[in-house]
Write a structure and sequence with these properties.
Chain lengths: 200, 200, 200, 200
DNA sequence: TATGAATGAGGTTTCATTCAT
DNA sequence: CATGAATGAAACCTCATTCAT
């Protein structure tokens, strides 16, 4: 019954299922929030039985934490790729571009972040804080390098600025996608860039 | 039928209760979100019995909607007071100041707005949209006056800019209060103003 | 404050209130049943405040029991008036007529009786049983007199027949009022009489 | 996807549960009425957890509506079987017999019908009206056939008579079971038949 | 005599989680 | 690897009753 040569197929199938569950969950949570999204909803949208959610994740919270980790890991990677080998000011521009691109592709995830990031007292707050730190640190390192090299203003408070930049990028992009999706990306990017240059 | 002073006393008592419920609810929802906040929690914090919540509001959702309305009405009023009789660029600065001041005083309400404003598919989405429109329209009118008088750039897309300004003010202020509350207001206001001036 | 000469007016006012509450309650309970009818409903329909219900009756159940008593007392009286001084067969006919007349005037009360009379396990079951007994005993006495005088069949089981007659009169009349109110009373009475004569 | 015998086993299990819930509910509602019967009561008597009630029925009301449908479908079927192939007067007698038999077997359901059928303004009134129509139509068809063939009086108002017959059968049978269960069926049936023959 | 705000026990309903298949 | 019936704790909400005015 559990023959070795099918293990691969099974693993793949399982990965598929997890992926489907991630996608279903991220959409629903973006729309309604974590608490308002039921495991039934998720299973229904992912087209699996409810038990399958628990076969693949320890709990609803665990599913959500994996989701956050997965998403932010990806964002961090894209941030790192964007700045790699670029001089400070160019790197900052590349970060803005990368963030915008990411949010465009994963709008639901971005909405979800915007909703959860500035709350307090939730189970996963600790996890989220750590993950936030991880993504923002790429921005911070870039700004710090700019300050060190003299390309950016010496008085810049790097920690504060990175945090704000991340936040501003998030709202502006999400606001765009939700309330004026007909606007071209380039325009939004230009607007964002103007803000960022001024602020740094 | 009933004597006036009796009715008055009763009305006042009831208004007190509603106010207490609003305060309890706004804090809890800011911390945990709407769905994660129970009516028991709210009643407990407001120091009334659970039934009292339902005597004063038709449902948990209705309480939340009144809360939103109440908060945004106040914000709108403060916006209006801020711009009254001021020339365009000064009016914009006054708006930023007013928003910051409001958020500082009603941090919980601001966190709650940040969490709910860019979602989709919640019961009160329609209400929220209208309320958002109401607050943002003050910004829009101000910007429009500036464009008309030549004080602001003619190419400015007023609708888009008002929406973005509102959002940016919200994240920056909340990010400040949540992650670096030790920073002085003036500094945050300066930073925000720099962004805004650049963007308009 | 409590001067003697106004006591009369007060009593009258109170009686008015009770009457209004009875009327409101009987209608609502006929429509929805006792448990589904709330004290709020009753107060609303009687156009008094909720507290007034409790000022006039000890409890919701007490109000209902008084209602039952009041209604059945009246029915019993009308039964007694109908049979008074009549020979057996004529008395039976008069009873049928009286019951029909009563139900026509107090349709709600009749619906309510039909709904409650053949249940078990309700708080007021005991009260209701006694009241039922009281009304039915008039029928039983009449039938017994008929049997004794030889006007009615000797084999007639008086207890059983009175019970059945009461029930049949109730359903037939209520069914008429609810499902074919356009039919003339006389016709219904003729139909009912045919049944009764045959059965006795 | 799932093997057939698994699905079957599951279906059977679920049907069992629903049946148990129907039985528990019908008894309790007959005793106390719909509103006074709690979901806890039902679950307790059916020996399932409360959640199971809601896994199987959308709401307490939905459970009750399915119950009504289920019961009246069965009664209708027995009515149809009773009249099948019989000449008019014999068919009428068979209907009376069938109704009595049904009520004897499902006393609770009959009590519940008697309590609900002549009310107004309840959620399920519409459903009940339709179901009532369905059962009564068998009686009406039978009477109509009798009138057409000349076996029954030509002046008979078929609609009114069917309705009344149904009602009279119900009260008489329930009155018997509740207040003089010691009486033999045959006697009750004879009494009922006398009424019916006279009325038709 | 009447009022209506407030209460809290208890009702209906939801939902994360378990488990036998 | 996946299923879906069942569970029960905990959520939302209702309502008979109390009480200060």
């Amino acid at each position: 019954m559990t023959e070795a040569h099918v293990a691969d197929g099974r693993t793949r199938r399982r990965e598929d299922t997890k992926q489907r569950l991630f996608e279903a969950a991220v959409e629903l949570i973006a729309e309604q929030g974590f608490s308002a999204t039921t495991v039934d909803d998720i299973a229904l949208r992912a087209k699996v039985a409810k038990g399958t959610v628990y076969y693949n994740f320890a709990s609803k919270t665990a599913l959500f934490e994996e989701l956050l980790r997965h998403g932010i890991d990806q964002l961090t990677e894209e941030f790192r790729a964007a700045v790699a080998g670029r001089p400070p000011r160019e790197a900052v521009a590349a970060l803005v571009h990368a963030q915008l691109e990411f949010i465009r592709r994963y709008q639901s995830f971005a909405q979800l972040l915007l909703s959860e990031m500035w709350r307090s007292n939730r189970e996963w707050q600790q996890t989220l804080l750590l993950l936030r730190e991880q993504a923002i640190s790429v921005i911070a390192e870039t700004l710090q390098a700019g300050v060190d090299s003299g390309d950016l203003r010496a008085e810049l408070d790097v920690r504060v600025a990175s945090s704000a930049l991340f936040g501003v990028g998030l709202v502006v992009a999400v606001d765009w996608l939700v309330f004026s999706p007909e606007r071209p990306v380039e325009e939004v990017e230009r607007g964002l860039m103007a803000i960022v240059q001024r602020a740094t």
